Amino acid sequence: MTVAGVGAEVTRAQQPRLPLLPDEVGEEYRRAYDAGATIGHIHGRRPDGTPTQDRETFRAYSEAIRARCPILRQFSTGGAVGMGVEERIEALELGPEMATLTLGTCNFGDDVFENSLPTIRTILERIRRYGIVPELEIFDDGMLATADVLFAKGLLSPPAHFDFVLGVPGAAAATAENLTHFARSIPAGCTWTVAGIGRRQTAMATMAIAMGGHVRVGFEDNIFYRKGELADSNARFVERVVRIAREVGREPATIEQARSILRIPSQAVA
Ligand code: KMH
Ligand code: ZN
User: Fold this and answer.
1) Tens of pLDDT, residues 154-192
2) How many whole angstroms from 2 Cα to the centroid of ligand 2?
3) 102 CB under 6 A from ligand 1?
């Protein structure tokens, strides 16, 4: 299970429990780890909440997390819409266990999340340089076609790990049909997670659990525990998914199991 607890778009005004400072992020990810999350998807924020991919912010977050728990760090390379590619990837030299790689451009609410092929190649090259395991972010159907192209060219090789981000306004909707279609479209042996956006988070998570997939939850994707009720922590979402998983006979992965599922070497990269 992945916790995406910070994000780049949600604000403190929308979600007062959003962690921003390193100790806040460290505490939030420790609570999520204690509840069953093994991957921490990380975006950077300045103390005033504005998004940043600044290396030193990621260093401070990493140290605050590492001081508290062994959750695997997955750095965002998406950052916030409008950021340049070099800014998006400068923290990768810190050698997190994982980093995201979005395989195409899509609308993102009123904005455009730009991921041209040159951008993708630049990010992938940097991920490879530091021996980081990529998570392939799929927001829309065309991104699956790009994955096929990258596999065919040998720039990516299966098995790979995908994250289906479903429900972003302007990209693929969070429906059972889309999730089934996406899960069937990736090469044999690949693994996948679903990140359901907004009120579809728990429905998507429940489907993924039943289908043998993995789950991402957190304030980046959804701030409400249920209609009209803000979640009081990211861990609350993790606890709910663990309860649902246990009802159908699945247990959250341990760190070692997550490393094995995601093909992350046992020794930390850095
Ligand atoms: N903030 C979104 C525009 C990622 O983390 O790799 C992009 C995003 C994807 O969140
Ligand atoms: Zn993200």
Assistant:
1) 999 999 999 999 999 999 999 999 999 999 999 999 999
2) 11
3) yes
